[in-house]
Amino acid sequence: MYDPDKRKLLSAISHGAIFFSTTLVSVGIPIAILFVSDDPIVKENAKEAINFHLNVWFWALVIGVLVTISFGLLFPLAGLGFLIHWGLTILAIVKVLSHPDESFRYPFIVRLL
């Protein structure tokens, strides 16, 4: 069988990679884990983390454009996006640590992988 501690660690790192950096590192870490691990749960968590991080980048771009063209009037929208992003990431980490035999699925995202 698969090591549950290793499963927890790699799954949590996949989802928490966005805390290390918001650049390519946030997607690069789950991609590396996807290729290195042979555990199916870890692979599913890595794919889900990649999809979520790509969605975060997309929505950050959309919100940034909206804030810019509204001359800052929609700035609270950026705060809301930030809270949702960090809240879902923390929820994912908590879920994979407490339920290591289940992969976490983010709600309301477009899944490319």
Q: Total number of β-strand segments?
A: 0
Gap between N and C termini: 25 Å
Question: What is the residue-averaged pLDDT?
Answer: 94
What is the helix tally?
4
- Work out the strand percent: under 5%
Helix content: over 70%
What pattern of helices and strands is seen along the backbone? HHHH
Which stretches are poorly predicted, pLDDT < 50 over at least 5 residues?
Answer: none
- Give the CA-based shape: elongated
For the CA atoms, what is the radius of gyration? Answer: 15 Å
* Biggest sheet layout: none
Structural class by helix and strand composition: mainly alpha
Word description of this protein:
Keywords: Membrane, Transmembrane, Transmembrane helix. This is DUF4870 domain-containing protein. The chain crosses the membrane at residues 12-36, 56-75, 82-98. It is a multi-pass membrane protein. InterPro entries: MamF_MmsF (IPR019109). The chain has 113 residues and is mainly alpha-helical. The chain contains four helices and no strands. Helix 1 runs parallel beside helix 3 (40-69). The protein is elongated and about 55 Å long. The chain starts with a helix and ends in a 15-residue tail after the last helix. The mean pLDDT is 94.
SSE blueprint:
Layout: H1 4-20, H2 25-36, H3 40-69, H4 75-98
Helix pairs in contact: 1-2, 1-3, 1-4, 2-3, 3-4
Transmembrane segments: 12-36, 56-75, 82-98
Membrane topology: Multi-pass membrane protein
Main location: membrane
